[in-house]
Q: What sequence folds into this?
């Protein structure tokens, strides 16, 4: 890890199987990460264990190459960029975006840490490999020409049936500049704005912590019922088991849906929905869905009415297996119903409910808006 003050340390961290370095660092409870067998590069001083605030990390990489920073998709497009960091350092590397996805959209959705593949220092061209870069340490991102030795190739069999789902069209900052050649440069003075802020999560006072607000402002009877039901919900129990704060009661109706509970847990723990998806996937030993790039051939396997009723987003199909994203992976009947409808093997993956809803609106517009999720 290279810290934002220039210090460098080497150590060991523990991740769940399949968890990327960027998602791991971005989902730490309270922003703290445990590191063991620590050695500081400056003086060789060691420590058996320390707890580090990830906001101080500029970038991190696996020295053994055994922890992925990014998970690419067979139908995602490589996007080569140069990054300017707050300390004046320049890096270049590869991002994996859905085809035709805007760079600003990708950066908006990526979370606290940006995963970059095939990273090198500029102008030295010294390799860093796969790294996770703190978005707060990035001052600008700009497109560059694809290096000749790393040209992106379309996957075999690509045809017009491929189509991609774009998460949203919200720019990261108002300073986004689109040039004549369609490349995009983002100028972000200082720390990036909080991508997790939402009107739905606005508190009575922006300076008032949620816990204090809960003590000062009594919940309504409906909100109290919502808290009780959220606590019994599998997601509420997972939050307790994982040491997370319980769902924020004032965001809960009397009969909360999976989306209501998900949002309330995220709000209580000040985390992005994608971060909670990574925690759920690790707990359930499932994969986080690659929902940035949806294969239209997978969509064709499930009728829109059924996809909406089940809250299930078909993501990809390969080798007779259909990969389906859901916000409710513990629904006991979901896999059985999907196997019956598609006559295929089904792999359940995890995605935030808002992503599922927006994606279903995109892919099944003729069915009507809204996702039925219990």
A:
């Amino acid at each position: 890890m290279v810290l934002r003050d220039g210090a460098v340390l080497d150590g060991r961290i523990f991740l769940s199987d399949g968890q990327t370095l960027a998602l791991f660092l971005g989902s730490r409870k309270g922003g703290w990460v445990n590191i063991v067998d620590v050695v500081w590069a400056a003086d060789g001083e060691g420590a058996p264990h320390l707890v580090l605030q990830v906001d101080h990390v500029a970038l991190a990489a696996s020295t053994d190459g055994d922890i992925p920073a990014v998970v690419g998709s067979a139908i995602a497009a490589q996007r080569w960029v140069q990054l300017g960091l707050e300390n004046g350092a320049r890096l270049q590397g590869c991002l994996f975006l859905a085809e035709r996805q805007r760079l600003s959209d990708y950066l908006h959705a990526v979370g606290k840490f940006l995963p970059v593949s095939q990273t090198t220092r500029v102008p030295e061209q010294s390799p860093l490999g796969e790294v996770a870069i703190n978005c707060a340490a990035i001052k600008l991102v700009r497109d560059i020409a694809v290096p000749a030795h790393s040209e992106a190739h379309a996957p075999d069999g690509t045809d017009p049936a491929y189509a991609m789902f774009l998460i949203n069209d919200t720019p990261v900052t108002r300073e986004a500049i689109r040039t004549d050649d369609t490349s995009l440069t983002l100028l972000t003075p200082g720390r990036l704005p909080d991508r997790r802020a939402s009107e739905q999560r606005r508190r009575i006072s922006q300076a008032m912590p949620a816990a204090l607000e809960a003590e000062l402002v009594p919940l309504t009877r409906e909100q109290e019922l919502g808290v009780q039901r959220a606590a019994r919900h599998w997601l509420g129990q997972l939050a307790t088991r994982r040491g997370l704060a319980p769902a924020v009661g004032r965001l809960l109706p009397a009969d909360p849906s999976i989306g209501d509970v998900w949002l309330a847990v995220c709000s209580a723990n000040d985390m992005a929905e994608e971060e909670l998806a990574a925690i759920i996937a690790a707990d359930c030993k499932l994969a986080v869905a690659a929902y940035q790039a949806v294969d239209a051939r997978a969509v064709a396997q499930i009728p829109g009415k059924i996809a909406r009723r089940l809250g299930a987003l078909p993501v990809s199909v390969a080798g007779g297996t259909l990969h389906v994203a859901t916000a409710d992976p513990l629904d006991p009947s979901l896999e059985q119903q999907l196997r019956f409808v598609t006559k295929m093997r089904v792999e359940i993956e995890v995605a935030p409910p808002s992503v599922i809803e927006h994606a279903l609106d995109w892919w099944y517009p003729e069915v009507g808006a809204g996702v039925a999720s219990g």
About this structure: The longest strand covers residues 76-85. The chain has four domains: 2-61, 76-187, 202-271, 284-367.
